[in-house]
Structures are given as C-alpha cells and as structure tokens.
Amino acid sequence: MFNNCYRLYLREQLSEMADVLGRPDEAKACRAELARLRPLVHAAFYDKDRQLYVLDEQSYQLMPLMTGLVPEELRATILKKLEDGIRVNRQGHLDTGMLGTYFLLNYLSAIGATT
Fold this sequence. Notes:
Elements: H1 2-20, H2 24-45, E1 46-47, E2 52-53, H3 58-66, H4 75-89, H5 97-110
Helix pairs in contact: 1-2, 1-3, 3-4, 3-5
C-alpha cells in the first residue's frame, strides 16, 4: 500500500516537473495515469467495513490522503482515523517511521492543520 501510494506521489511530482519544464503533453499524460490508477489502488486497499486502508496505522491513512487517493466523500473519515491514530491510539506519538513522518509533517502543513 505504502509503495503504491509512493508511486502515485512520484507521478504527481513528474506532472508538476513537466509543467515547470513547459511540457504540457507529458503533464497531461501523468495526470491521466493518476486518474486511472487512483481508483484501482483505492479499490485494492480500502476496507469498506472498517472504513480504513489496510491497517489502523497512521501511515496507512496518511499516504492515501496525501496522494489524492481517497474519494472526496471519505476524506473526512480517513482524516479522523489519522487524527485518532495519533491522538488516541498512540497518545500523541507518531508511528509513521522516517519516511512517513516526513510526509505526515508536509501533509499536515499543506492542509493547514495547526494542532
């Protein structure tokens, strides 16, 4: 799951680089691939009954949020799972590991989370 989301993240980075380099066709192709892959990865890893991705661990909720994998109607639920994972389950501690912590801090900053 983490690796699939990481690949989505890299594809998004490629689309942004293509934009900067003035290669709109490449940017468009990257975005088309993202639009094709996101629903597939979501379907493979989202547990509808438990309303979470794979395991109830912080990185498994973070990565789908960060990469735009989570459908709009589920974003609040998954964000709450992430928040509960930090505040309740781990009593304010992170279990995201080295890479996950980097992405977590960037994501929370990007969405304007202040607490």
